[in-house]
Amino acid sequence: MFSDDLILIAVAFMAALSIGGVAYVLLYPLLSGEAKANKRMAKVSTKQRGVRGQKGNDAENRDQRRLKVQQTLKDLEEKQKKKKQRVPLRITLTQAGLGISVKVFWILSILCGILVGLVMLITGSSPLIAAAGAFVSAVGFPRWVLRFLKKRRQNKFLDSFANAIDVIVRGIKSGLPVNDTLKVIATESPDPVGPEFQEIVDGQKLGIALDQGLERMFERMPLAEVNFLAIVVAIQQKTGGNLAEALTNLSIVLRDRKKMQGKITAMSQEAKSSAAIIGALPPSIMILVYLVNPDYIALLWQTDLGQMLLVGSATWMAMGVLVMRKMINFDF
């Protein structure tokens, strides 16, 4: 199909192209001076290795400290994820500062529900409405009181927590051990800061480490500020460093958070006032109408249809109040 001359020319061309490619690869570095440049770069890098030896050791130490900090933070995050499960009622009572047992709490809740149910039956409500009121009073109202007491105790704790950290910083800078500064806070700080640190001091007497004591403190007082303190102490114990400086920075952060909370409260106060006025209008109008014409509005709780309307209105009002509350509460 092809002549012999064309085949010989093609073979010679392919052979010449292959020989030329091999020669280019082998001879180009020598002809262009690339080999000499590589040698010079090798000599320079060898000299730089000797100069960077000490810096490399410092960098390795910093890398090791970073790895330790990352591992510590990872362990703390895993512990926090495990603790984010549903909190038992016993711990909730402790967080609220109540010294009663779970059994006593349920007894008081049931008595409250029975009392409200009897009052509603005596006032002429139907048994179904009285049962619903008794259930809400036995289950919902005690829980609301418990959350209110818990929130109030946490706010009191935050008012003095930054000062307690400052006491630790001053004690460390003056040469006192951390345990002695914790004893000072436990004896001189107001409730609930003093009792919470007293639990840590008592735990150390039993052999509980400081980081474990702070973790238990976070269970009793589940606040981000307490978690910050536990993280700082845990990292300092595992990686070393200046604890006084770290706690000073933590105290500054806590005070800035407190200022930010105050600013948010002031800026959202107008919205809260509007929500309170809107939520108070229906019951206020109901009371005024009852004072002017009792027979006109008494049908709401004297008839079955009126009682159903009251229950539906109360449900929708509660949903509206909860939505407005969610809109005006800011987490930071």
> N-to-C SSE series?
HHHHHHHHHHHHHHH
Q: Rg to the nearest angstrom?
A: 37 Å
What's the story with the biggest beta sheet?
none
N/C terminus separation = 85 Å
The portion of residues forming beta strands comes to under 5%
Separate helix tally? 15
Average pLDDT score = 78
Poorly predicted spans: none
Query: How much helix is in the residues?
Result: over 70%
Let me know the number of strands: 0
Topology at a glance:
Blueprint: H1 4-32, H2 34-51, H3 53-83, H4 89-95, H5 102-122, H6 127-173, H7 178-188, H8 193-205, H9 210-220, H10 224-239, H11 243-267, H12 269-292, H13 294-297, H14 299-302, H15 304-328
Quick take:
The chain has helices at residues 4-32, 34-51, 53-83, 89-95, 102-122, 127-173, 178-188, 193-205, 210-220, 224-239, 243-267, 269-292, 294-297, 299-302, 304-328.
Keywords:
single chain; 332 residues; mainly alpha; 3 domains; 15 helices
Structure description:
- With 332 residues, the chain is mainly alpha-helical.
- It has helices spanning 4-32, 34-51, 53-83, 89-95, 102-122, 127-173, 178-188, 193-205, 210-220, 224-239, 243-267, 269-292, 294-297, 299-302, 304-328.
- It has 15 helices and no strands.
